[in-house]
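quick q for whoever's on today - can somebody do inverse folding on this one?? i tried earlier but teh output was garbage lol. tokens:
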């Protein structure tokens, strides 16, 4: 998160406005599994936000709704406005216009510290002088629980997070993964109606990230209020969220379930995230005439503006123009770059149609691929996927 406007993050978990909220137990399925997201929850439940924030050189204008129990990921490239949106939701950045309603209450009239909102920051922001237990007990204590009751709840949270052995540890002696779990417990212990997670896994190393991601996934599945996660990592978004809201340049460019978005990307940024070649054109029957480039033959029969996509693995490369290939799509290209991609080589091709192609190391060597090499690329119509734009 880029802290650009100088506002300080909250120094502790804010208190909820009532005690009726429920956190913890529930028979929910896992986020991103089974449960159909509800993009337009009932007006008196869940989140209804129209966030308008104007900075001198940036304008955010997004509508965001989420039903209780739903996990929404705000996904977007650097500078898209994710942090600004999250800070708007948390009350750390004032809205220039719009509205922010949670469970039927106007939050924009509630001071940030009184909002039933829990925030988990990328860099944890635990109280350094308090033990793990007291960090978690802080929220319930602020909400009026007795010291003993607050500590009892905190003890339960530590157990749930698998951190009972670290109750007396100070944040500086916790690992990144442990600190992030304490931060999550601290936010959840206040039973927030809106949980905000700002790049919660970004500061962790790859292995810890895997572990914390799967734990977070479990806790979010049990969480019965609205959770909004900000990330630029598509994997975090796909694994943790029921619904993705993709933001580019302060606007929502696409929203839907992770599988929907992965199958039908509508911008270059999303196509790149999910690893697809994506083009826009005008479809007539089985042919999509690209706006800038050749025609692509597809199996779908469409008329009008259309996207056509195919994965890099669907591309076959030839050094010489293939004669016996049954592929309907054949383009002359030039290798612009090569990079290792898992156990494959990804070739970045320019020419008639810019595209990415994946091939094995052996195939790359046999084709003598190198930047500047001229190459023929084919894609079968059955490997492409066309859908209305
Ligand atoms: N207080 C501010 N004053 C002026 N411009 C700002 C302010 N806060 C953010 N911006 C600008 O708003 C734009 C969006 O920033 P924001 O941090 O919300 O993006 P982001 O999607 O979270 O990016 P990142 O992934 O890099 O954190 C950027 O161009 C940023 O410079």
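ok took a stab at it. sequence:
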């Amino acid at each position: 998160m880029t802290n650009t406007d100088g506002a300080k993050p909250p120094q502790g978990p804010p208190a909820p406005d009532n005690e009726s909220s429920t956190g913890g137990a529930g028979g929910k399925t896992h986020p991103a599994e089974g449960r159909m997201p509800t993009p337009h929850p009932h007006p008196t439940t869940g989140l209804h936000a129209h966030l308008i924030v104007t900075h001198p050189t940036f304008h955010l204008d997004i509508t965001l709704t989420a039903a209780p129990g739903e996990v929404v990921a705000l996904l977007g490239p650097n500078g898209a406005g994710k942090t600004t949106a999250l800070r708007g939701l948390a009350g750390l950045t004032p809205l220039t216009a719009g509205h922010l309603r949670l469970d039927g209450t106007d939050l924009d009239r509630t001071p940030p510290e009184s909002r039933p909102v829990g925030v988990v920051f990328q860099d944890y922001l635990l109280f350094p002088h308090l033990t793990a237990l007291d960090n978690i007990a802080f929220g319930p204590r602020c909400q009026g629980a007795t010291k003993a009751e607050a500590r009892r709840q905190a003890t339960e949270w530590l157990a749930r997070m698998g951190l009972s052995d670290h109750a007396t540890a100070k944040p500086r002696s916790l690992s990144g993964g442990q600190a992030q779990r304490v931060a999550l417990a601290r936010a959840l212990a206040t039973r927030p109606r809106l949980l905000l997670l700002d790049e919660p896994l970004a500061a962790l190393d790859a292995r810890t990230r895997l572990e914390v991601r799967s734990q977070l996934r479990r806790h979010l599945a049990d969480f019965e209020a609205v959770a909004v996660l900000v990330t630029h990592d598509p994997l975090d978004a796909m694994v943790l969220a029921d619904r993705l809201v993709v933001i580019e340049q302060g606007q929502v460019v696409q929203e839907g379930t992770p599988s929907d978005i992965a199958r039908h990307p509508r911008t270059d940024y999303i196509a790149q995230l999910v690893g697809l070649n994506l083009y826009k054109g005008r479809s007539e029957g089985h042919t999509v005439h690209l706006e800038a480039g050749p025609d692509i033959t597809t199996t779908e029969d469409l008329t009008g503006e259309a996207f056509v996509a195919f994965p890099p693995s669907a591309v076959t490369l030839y050094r010489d123009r293939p004669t016996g290939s049954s592929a309907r799509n054949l383009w002359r290209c030039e290798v612009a770059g090569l990079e290792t991609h898992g156990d494959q080589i990804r070739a970045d091709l320019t020419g008639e149609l810019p595209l990415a192609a994946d091939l094995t190391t052996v195939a790359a060597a046999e084709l003598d691929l190198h930047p500047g090499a001229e190459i023929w690329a084919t894609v079968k119509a059955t490997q492409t996927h066309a859908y209305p734009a």
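fwiw DSSP finds nine helices and 18 strands in the chain. also The first strand starts at residue 47 and ends at 55. so keep that in mind when u check it
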